[in-house]
Amino acid sequence: MMFNTPEFAFLLIVTMILFYAVPKARLSLLTVANVLFYAIVGVKYLLLFGVVSTIVFICARCMKASNKKPLLWLGISVSLLNLIFFKYTAFIFKSVERFLSLTIVPHDAKWLSLALPLGISFYTFELIAYVVDVYKGKIEPEKSIFRFWMFIMFFAHMIAGPIMRGAEFFPQIKKIDTIRFHIGNMRMGVFLISLGLIKKVFISDNLAPYCDSFFAHPEWLNGAEGWTAAVLYAFQIYFDFSGYSDMAVGIGYLFGLNLAVNFLTPYLSGNATEFWRRWHITLSSWIKDYIYIALGGSRHGKFRQYASLFVAMTLSGLWHGSKWTFVAWGMYQGGLLIGHKLWSTVLNKLGLKNRDNYWWYRLANMIGFFALTCLGWVLFRVESLTYALALMKRMLTFPEAFIFPAWVKHFWIVILFMVILHVIEHLLLKHMKDISMRWHRWFPTPVRGAVYTLFVVLLILLYKHEQSTFIYFQF
User: Which residues, by range, are in coiled-coil regions (predicted)?
Assistant: First the structure.
């Protein structure tokens, strides 16, 4: 069940009404809603989730000073093996077969083509974070299986994040019976859900056909066409994924729950480090805390730090999908992060620590890094690594990269419009409280009501009946 469907809207409204009507039954009510939400995908995957999550719950619950480590590794292993079996088995066998030039298993074996359980990558990361945090004593093991399931499978964030941590979500769940209806939460929730719908339905879904057309035959694109396709896809995937994340946070507000913010206008970043603080924030935070730091982080010298960073980002790429293009994308991102650290070290030694105070330097960095980001999206979008690398080469070839055929020039008007929207979003989020105060102070209730009504009417009129899935649901 997707957020942009009438069925989900019905489930959300009914659940919210009952949530505030029967405060003492809130945990049970949300458990039922979560089960219904996920069961639509398939009961067998719901049962699988129940088994895996229950094992992790028991491992954490039984941890004592004398037997912590075996239970830690059991919880991690069960979570990872579940993910590896469904997501990487076919990839591993095909890669080995290609390397050894032999057939290990029949290609028509049904177990190699099992559908990927919805949200498996996201709930796996939450399970691992939970059992590791209990092991390290950062949080106490949860005693209630229902509160634990609420933490993992709350329908607002289960399928594609944000990736929640026990320390930030369990305290809210334990006080769920005391949450009161607050008009401010309703306004913020409806605003974020509306913003997410606009991003997904009106922007990303309308960019999708053009991106699909460009990348249907990447071998036919010249350098300039490659840049056009890459920039369009950059905005398609951003508005799609950030739209989902906005809706997830907005749904949380409707129930008085605070979910982590996942995006902060990342294409206004000036370097790779800043980008990963603003793009898929909860994933980059997870990668840092549970992979990068576990590998040594910055504690063992620069070389070890850069090696840990490169490995962590490569694994991040592999997490996104079982293809060598995703692995290459992760390596590319690791290279950008290492390159930024080396460049910063050089500039600091030259006494240029305050370089970001100059607006022209900041703007040049934003434009340059956005180009590097779009170049990397080619690896993420193109199915074949060979085709992706060949297209990237053409995009970096002079003068081919600047020879725009007449038929693609109008796309850059669309791209300019996307850039303006991104800047407007940044200003809107930066001045949210002030804008909200002015909106309610300057415009009377009837005017605001008329605007809301007009928005709903436009949404209904322009809404597409063929709902497209969110891009990150496949991960």
Answer: none
> Same structural domain for residues 168 and 228?
no
Asked if residues 471 and 4 have their Cβ atoms less than 8 Å apart, the reply is no
Return d(Cα 140, Cα 135) in angstroms, integer: 9
Q: Residue 30's domain spans which residues?
A: 6-181
Report residue 407's pLDDT band, with 50, 70 and 90 as the boundaries. confident
Residue 77 within any structural domain of the chain: yes
Residues 293 and 390 grouped into a single domain: yes
336 part of a folded domain: yes
Q: What is the pLDDT of residues 356-402, one digit of tens each?
A: 677 788 899 999 999 999 999 999 999 999 999 999 999 999 888 88
Report the distance separating Cα 462 and Cα 201, nearest Å: 9
Pair 213, 268 in one domain? yes
For the chain, how many structural domains are there in total?
2
Distances (CA, A) of 97 to 86, 87, 93, 101, 104: 18, 17, 6, 5, 7
- Scanning the structure block, which residue is given the tokens 């069961």? 39
How much is the pTM? 0.91
Respond yes or no: is residue 107 known to be catalytic.
Answer: no
Pick the catalytic residue from 157, 280, 320, 340: 320
Q: Which of 376, 359, 357 is nearest to 267 (CA)?
A: 376
User: Tell me: the pLDDT tens digits for 250-301?
Assistant: 999 999 999 999 999 999 999 999 999 999 999 999 999 999 999 888 788 8
316 within 8 A of 283, measured Cβ to Cβ: yes
